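#struct-pred
JK: can someone run the complex with pyridoxal-5'-phosphate? inputs below
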Amino acid sequence: MLIYEHSAEGRKGAPQAPRQKAPLTGIPAHLLRPESAALPQVSELQAVRHYTRLSQQNFSIDTQFYPLGSCTMKYNPRVCHTLAMLPGFSGIHPLSPATQQQGFLACMAELQLMLAEITGMAAFSLAPMAGAQGEFAGVAMIKTYHQARGDAMRREMLIPDAAHGTNPASSVMCGFSVKEIPTLANGDVDIDALTAAVGPQTAGLMLTNPSTLGVFERNIESIAKIVHDAGGLLYYDGANLNAILGKTRPGDMGFDVIHTNLHKTFSTPHGGGGPGSGAVGVAKRLQAFLPLPVVTKDKDTYRYLTEVDCPQSIGRLSAFMGNPGVLLRAYIYMRLLGAEGMERVAEFATLNANYMQAEAKRRGFDLGIDNRRASHEFIITLKQVAKTCHVSAMDFAKRLLDMGFHAPTTYFPMLIAECLLIEPTETESKEVLDAFMAALEQILHEAHTRPQLLKEAPQTLPVKRLDEVKAARQLDLRYK
Amino acid sequence: MLIYEHSAEGRKGAPQAPRQKAPLTGIPAHLLRPESAALPQVSELQAVRHYTRLSQQNFSIDTQFYPLGSCTMKYNPRVCHTLAMLPGFSGIHPLSPATQQQGFLACMAELQLMLAEITGMAAFSLAPMAGAQGEFAGVAMIKTYHQARGDAMRREMLIPDAAHGTNPASSVMCGFSVKEIPTLANGDVDIDALTAAVGPQTAGLMLTNPSTLGVFERNIESIAKIVHDAGGLLYYDGANLNAILGKTRPGDMGFDVIHTNLHKTFSTPHGGGGPGSGAVGVAKRLQAFLPLPVVTKDKDTYRYLTEVDCPQSIGRLSAFMGNPGVLLRAYIYMRLLGAEGMERVAEFATLNANYMQAEAKRRGFDLGIDNRRASHEFIITLKQVAKTCHVSAMDFAKRLLDMGFHAPTTYFPMLIAECLLIEPTETESKEVLDAFMAALEQILHEAHTRPQLLKEAPQTLPVKRLDEVKAARQLDLRYK
Amino acid sequence: MPFIPHTEQEIADMLEAIGVAEIENLFDEIPDSLRAGSLNAIPEGLTEMEVSRLLHQRARQNSTALCFIGAGAYEHHIPAAVWELCARGEFYTAYTPYQAEASQGTLQIIYEYQSMMTALTAMDVSNASMYDGASALAEAVLMAVRADKRIRSGGGAAKAGKVASNPPARILMPTNLHPVYRKVTHTIVHGQQIELIDVPFDRQTGSTDLAQLEACAGETMSAVVIGQPNFFGQLEDVDAITDWAHKNNMLVIAVVNPLLLSVLKPPGQWGETGADIVCGDGQPLGAPLAAGGPYFGFLCCRQALLRQLPGRIVGRTEDLDGNPGFVLTLQAREQHIRRSRATSNICTNQGLMVVAATIHMAILGAQGLENTAAACYANSHELATRLSALEGVRLVFNSPYFHEFVLQFEQPVAAILTALAARGILGGVDISRDYPSLGQALLVCATEMRSAEDIAAYVAALQAVLGQALEGEYPLC
Amino acid sequence: MPFIPHTEQEIADMLEAIGVAEIENLFDEIPDSLRAGSLNAIPEGLTEMEVSRLLHQRARQNSTALCFIGAGAYEHHIPAAVWELCARGEFYTAYTPYQAEASQGTLQIIYEYQSMMTALTAMDVSNASMYDGASALAEAVLMAVRADKRIRSGGGAAKAGKVASNPPARILMPTNLHPVYRKVTHTIVHGQQIELIDVPFDRQTGSTDLAQLEACAGETMSAVVIGQPNFFGQLEDVDAITDWAHKNNMLVIAVVNPLLLSVLKPPGQWGETGADIVCGDGQPLGAPLAAGGPYFGFLCCRQALLRQLPGRIVGRTEDLDGNPGFVLTLQAREQHIRRSRATSNICTNQGLMVVAATIHMAILGAQGLENTAAACYANSHELATRLSALEGVRLVFNSPYFHEFVLQFEQPVAAILTALAARGILGGVDISRDYPSLGQALLVCATEMRSAEDIAAYVAALQAVLGQALEGEYPLC
Ligand SMILES: Cc1ncc(COP(=O)(O)O)c(C=O)c1O
Ligand SMILES: Cc1ncc(COP(=O)(O)O)c(C=O)c1O
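RT: done, structure tokens with the ligand placed:
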């Protein structure tokens, strides 16, 4: 039932708003709203009950194992939320003088430094509001860099075919054309193809490492050399940073620009679709181009750098300062972990993924890429089962929901047919991993014996399988 | 699954506690614990997931209609919680000097005054921690009053048979014996029996008005006269105060002592079994006996009254000040409502109950007491259906759970066979009341056509009907 | 209408269904003479915004000074997850779990709580909570008396009103128990003719004086109460007292701090056979100070005393399909069934605080509790050493204490505390009036929350305060 | 190990299953040359207690002065229930609702949000949010350009890289729009060769100058942007501008404050046929100020532009049994399907803020929003009247404004603000540098949160400040 269906005309008196409507004398009638907006009219109890019950219809980390590959669905420590919501932070007006927000700015300055250290970059801007905006900012910096050197012909961005969709989309938003680089069956970039592709038109290469195939790009040093030799820059998509925290640093691999998804690696909650943060880091030669604002310290006082300080900046990406509430949560998380805690993240995320990969193989699943170390995630391909039993990876996913697990990422990366991309994260226990693997094995068995169980799944959720085709064909996008 | 079943030996390092265990040098070995307590060893994620999922196994006001008679399960405004949890309140040490808690004490002083005004009593103490402790305090004050007057023979407390079990139990804890007074079929106290029962041994009479039968005691003035003439005092059990807020006042009816359940009438949440508050109010002649602490104002400063100020007090009931967090929530609620809002509480609680009563009758149910106004609650008796269809009030209750409603109170008051005591409260909408009545009617129909549906209910909850007899026979009271 | 969802149309429809013209008619059974007038002392309703502003103001009027007060309520770190979970509507707005199938969340938590409390105390059973530590002690005393066959013909407080002629039951209560606990116990039990007999403490150690106890050997006492640590923070020789009591046909009632039980010998292991009843305040397990509550009382006992245990108890059972589930059990002890013959009048208890304590213990685990308790020990000892090194300050007792200790001054403690408060330090509790024999005595506590800087700040402030004249800063009465 | 649940035994078992001796071996594909050294700039881990202490300290270092700043972020009362519900783990810790059946909570809320936003704006469709108001404006500009058949051969930003030789698309951007919105739009769109053409405002009214617009009549412009109210808080003649734009083959992009839409004419009703694209910042609907975010951008449009709309969209559909349910739909617009030819690169958006806004609107309803908006209006007018009555202060514009207004001073605004801050007043935003033609100009706002006393405090403080010498208090640069 929609909140609108609990509404009754004439219900009123929310105790949250001023009791009376002050007169709007002086506004010409033709600028005023002729009748009230059609919003629901419900009591606070009705609203609380409705949204509490809706919440219960979600899977979430706090209720289920959520091994969504590429998304790093780790535990979000509660203290990050309660501290970030302290009135001393939640009450700051973004345009209040810097002197009035020194406590907040101190956190941001330290966060910039910590991110630079863990990634091996020279400087960071916290401005981008999600990974994709970080990519935009990074690619725009690459563009501005070439332009600033008078190197205006570099119009092409190289992107491996395994890359996330945001990589090509971001490049195009910056005015680049995109050239895809193929990936070998072992998961590494095809170096020959890359060598053939680079040239004076090459602005740069965008790479995720470990890649979206769940393996570490072993030739990263050669790749960096090829691109750099051709005059291009290297962009690091930080979505998979969780796998290497404290173990190896993108800056040391040769990357010039990087975005980090704080809502993945640094545990800020995903909120059912954001807010996130795609903080960007750069090597020295790109520092002047960082998006604004950036926090700096003059003597004992923190303040934001502006266009006056940074005339070469690519500019601003939001009205104020990105998503400070998210940044605070990441800051708190990093302080809780410390250097030693970060290294543990990579170790146990990797241990969990490799354990599941070994178990998957043992239980008869085909791996997307065989005979390699998994990074923090790995891929199962159901191509064979699909052919034999006429069930799809999507059917597997839906059946998992019935067993109380969120499904892994399906059909991404696109290179591997009928794939499940599985990322357990470091915060899950062996108990959970074993239960999940047992469920997967049971479903494999069901696929052979009772495939309709998969096709008709889910059966235990608030709704059964939803008709996506109908949704797109007979558009119903709002309550009427 | 129990939290213990998620435990693994050797899991450790809660980031919430000091990292190391400091040495306990100087404590003799025989005073120390030889081995760690058998508590579960889980990660924060495991705990959060476990308890989040357990929470989802509860019915609650925030998720379901909860018409539990005598319990006043109204909406608990969320702002009462967020404000009561402000660090400025939650951080106060109870033994810090009064000068350090003036903001808190100001709220308490005003709460005392507001409760006195709405009940018509001379003074209040906020000390009792639930209704039953309020009863204990009130009855103890009656005892002390008689003793202070040298009237030591008054050893008997009169209590109508419809009364809540806490009334007789509280009287006995104070050293009284209990005499039951019968109730007439129309719900009023049997005046003749009362007249016959009073005497020089009468310490007082405990009454709930409106009574637990859901009707207003019309002869309250005569009753008060009879008891007072015999030298006894009148005790008001305030569990049903919601019905008369702002409409009539116990003090004006002649009551000498009263407790109010702030966790009912004044909307502090019940928390799955408390904490509550049973603040007690008294007429002038009992003021000296109020339990401590009581808040007072000297010039501009608030402070607690102590034994030095109140040598005749019955004493203290808790180590500090009752349940301040509960008291704060009640205070905030009362300030939100104001005088006009309180009167509306009684009006709409009564409207809802009478509407449901009329609907129940129209839909073929037998009323516990017919042809009277319901107060804020009313009774259905299923005696006839039980006889005809061999289903019980409990079966009705369980079937209601399947339909998404919490059950009304069953088998209380004991006077009325196979009864459901239904209290909707003022915060529920007609939409909800109609849905509930339709469900009741459907169950009545099912009782005649498919009684097994009732007997096997519930079917849709985390567990099916639980075996209470087995629980009591084969005691399993902790994880071993 | 704030919080009331009715529209004009719905009101009209409902009145029509009832068959009255207006809401006022529904109150026509109330005699006119009793109708209330206007409620002048109740201010007009506020909007949520207005009430928020008011309460924020009030919150700011309470101090945020550094707290070195203990005496039964302790400032501990509470993991953020605890109250984030407790405040979930499904816990926060449920009633007592009368409909078991619709209350498995609350019921299972209570079962887990009972498991954890019995583990901490090493006792057989726990109930689902009492109001607080002080009232739990009173109930423990009532249990002991009911269990004492020499006093009463049979269990049940029900007889109380009728046995006034019996000899009064007696309980040995050391004076080094929390003074308010002793007062509360008196308030609650004296209606049932129970006498609380003082036992003095040893002036050197602050602990219960075994010689004094020995004077009561052979007398008919239902129980002896032991606090571990006692009100002064001093440790008692619990084994010796327990064995002495049992030898003399008395039960042992332990009053303990549940956090410290993570490192101190649990009452179930005291002496040869352990304590019989264990109670205390659960505040150190997840309850914020909050001006005194809500906290909760815990109450555990040996299996033999189970039927005397007041309050709710949850048991594990099975559903129709044989799956495990939880219910309230042994309800025949309770007032809603047994009425005047119940073990107690308690009904609503402190459920939500039990949820908090359970989650708190689950998150910290035994190791977290141990590290916390040990940090309290270390901080208090550090503070005691440094304070008592100051001129004019001495530690009163000479035997082991845990996280509270008593200091003695030459100047009036009340004046010292006022001067400290002006420097942002809540220095402890003045116990001079409760214990005149100790002179100008101050009870001080430093939990794990007090950092090295906090401790240094106290030392510096006290040094400054003692160095100046204190005349007239505080009325001495 | 904080947040890591593995026991030594489990680690051993897992390594054995993998077939390696130690965890380190799992990293053996990383070239040795690339292994990281120690991370010196990252401090040691803190316990939760330590981190709480630190963050409380940091929180106290931010001011709690009375806030009269607006300029795109407004201090409004947020019902307590909003964040109590948003913070529930099921909302807070879910991912984007890719598995629809396991995400009906989030999906239904987005559908309700789309319904409410289209109701407020009187538009046909809404997406599920953009990052913020400024980036939403940039996306609106991109939409308008993609929709402009005169500029591009066909939809899809994909072509951007290849059409460098096309004539640049142009958009009319009044200078009375938020200066940072204009900057952000430039940052985001200029890579696609889109030109933003300034339109000056009328010096008397602060509103868009129709005469200046008329100068562009006949030129190929993809759209004109209108702020209602504009950055100065002044109201625009939206009907006239909308009709002018449509007559001249331009789309109309409205930038609006969603709270004020409860009382101002909705963009869907501007002029004869309404605006085409509506965007703005959702902050006034339930987001705390929080140093600048997270807030969220909203983006609505007419049905005809639906396929150009970036971001997520939720549709209602049916399940196998024919029961209603919700899914992400029209995903072929998005980057994860369309990649380089997507409408935008946006992926993660501001989901939780949408949950907050939906609950906020549900609780307040139209009436609550209207009363709030009207209170902002009343407070700002009261404040403007009283401030501009002071010597040396004048209101710059002479036509209707809503809840922000511009004052002009003879003394430097920067110095005045510093002096006010010292008196606990955040007096507004100095816009002198962005708008030199306005002289020493200050943008001031008073929402419903500012009580009569607050307003009086500002007036008194400003009076005091203006009465004193201000030399050198603030560097003027
Ligand atoms: C590999 C990869 N790159 C980029 C992104 C985009 O990040 P965001 O969703 O924060 O914009 C994602 C996240 O979905 C991703 O998995
Ligand atoms: C009529 C009546 N009296 C007394 C009580 C006891 O109140 P409490 O549970 O707060 O102790 C109740 C509540 O259950 C009640 O309904």
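RT: quick notes.
The pocket of pyridoxal-5'-phosphate (ligand 1) is lined by residues A 70, 130-132, 164, 166, 208, 212, 237, 239, 261, 276, 278; D 347-348 (CB under 6 Å).
Chain A touches chain B at residues 6, 8, 15, 43-46, 48-49, 52-53, 56, 61-64, 75, 77-78, 336, 427-429, 431 (CB under 8 Å).
JK: thanks, will look after standup
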